[in-house]
Amino acid sequence: xxxxxxxxxxxxxxxxxxxxxxxxxxxxxxxxxxxxxxxxxxxxxxxxxxxxxxxxxxxxxxxxxxxxxxxxxxxxxxxxxxxxxxxxxxxxxxxxxxxxxxxxxxxxxxxxxxxxxxxxx
Length: 121
Hints:
The protein is an all-alpha fold. Helix content is about 60%, strand content about 0%. It has helices spanning about 5-10, 15-30, 40-55, 70, 80-95, 100-110, 115. Helix 2 (about 15-30) crosses helix 3 (about 40-55) and helix 2 (about 15-30) crosses helix 5 (about 80-95). The chain starts with 5 loop residues before the first helix and ends with a helix. InterPro entries: Globin_bac-like_CS, Hemoglobin_trunc, Hemoglobin_trunc_I. Its cofactor is heme. It holds the Pfam family Bac_globin.
C-alpha cells in the first residue's frame, strides 16, 4: 500500500464522493462552523469539494474551481474552524472504516491548504 495514493487507499472517487456527502452533514450540523456555509449552494459546494479532494488525494484532476486562497478570501476562517473541519473529515473517514494511517495521510493533505484558508489565527 505504500506506493498507492490516498485516492487509491480511500477506494477511488466513489468513496470520496460518499465521504464528502457525510462530511458536509457533520459540518452543517455543527454550529461552530456551519455559519461559513449559510450563503452557499451546497449542491455546487459538494460537487466542487468532491472534485477537489479527488485531485488533492492523487486522483484524476477534474477540479475547475478557484484556488484555495481565492475561494476562501474574506470568510474570516479561524484556526479553530479549520481544525474542526479537518476533525470532521477524519471522523467521517473513520466512520467509513478507513484505517487510521490513511486518515492521517488525508489530514496531512488537508493541512497543506491551511495557509491559504485560515485568515484569523
